Amino acid sequence: AVAISQDIQNQPHQEFLIYYQPILALSNMQIVGLEALIRWQHPERGLISPTQFIPLAEETGLIVPIGDWIMRNACLQLKSWHQKFPKAKDITISVNLSPKQLAQKDVLEKCLNILQQTQLSPEHLKIELTESSIMENPNSALTILNQMRQVGIKIYIDDFGTGYSSLAYLHKFPFDGLKIDRSFVNNIHTNTNGMGILQAIIALAKSVKAHIVAEGIESLAQLNYLQDLLSEDGDGQGFFLFRPLDVKAIEAIFQSI
Ligand code: G
Ligand code: G
Ligand code: MN
Ligand code: NA
């Protein structure tokens, strides 16, 4: 862990890669968005998963420059895809924002700079935040989220349902959508209460008029079940649809549609 931490410090970003996982409209199975997911291509250790270095980057504060790099590159990439593939012009980019990034005073200013420099419209940027990162400093999060939404950036709550405070903050925080944690999708076949719990979470999300993204769709049965529950305006993401893919693979998809 210490070695990885020193390595993150020393590498000048060329070893980071962004993978993109398609997000589909459940009604017609068209790609409507991409989630940017970082990977670290280490010269000796190979491809390192973000679960192994994001927590370290959080602790050391390095997540801030790394996160800025991801946001800038993901926005730049999407803009270039909009221009290169006319059929991709409405596709959005979802970027995970870590708690440390959200706590930066200039987080909005940075987003606005990136949007301006890349000429991407704010409506095409979706920020994903976890409940716990909002709860670290609810007052400042409230201010920042309101400001982001005012300029047109979309706010999504990631891993929804896994935080302790779901119900308490739902009416209080401004957001556009909820990403239902993959554990709830997985549980529909393994847990006797799984279907009931998923239905309750979806009812809750609908009651606050949130756009819904179901994560972790790993089978046809899960896909069909979710299509029944929320086809009209829900989205889906998961290995059964697409894995996170590199730039080349995404371009091959855009070329074929
Ligand atoms: O892509 P993968 O399933 O391996 O990601 C594992 C975890 O790392 C997920 O919780 C995901 O949200 C997080 N993660 C992936 N990319 C980023 C990123 O660019 N920024 C932050 N903060 N977290 C990320
Ligand atoms: O925490 P967050 O939702 O950002 O995590 C995104 C991560 O979830 C990505 O790293 C991606 O690799 C992973 N992921 C995406 N779809 C699936 C899936 O169907 N099953 C599993 N187990 N993981 C998935
Ligand atoms: Mn996410
Ligand atoms: Na998630």
TrEMBL record:
Record carries keyword ATP-binding: no
Domain of life: Bacteria
GO molecular function: cyclic-guanylate-specific phosphodiesterase activity
Keywords: Membrane, Transmembrane, Transmembrane helix
Domain EAL: 1-257
Protein's name in the database: Diguanylate cyclase/phosphodiesterase with Chase sensor
Native source organism of the sequence: Pseudanabaena biceps PCC 7429
Organism taxonomic ancestry: Bacteria, Bacillati, Cyanobacteriota, Cyanophyceae, Pseudanabaenales
Covered range of the whole protein: 588 to 844 of 844
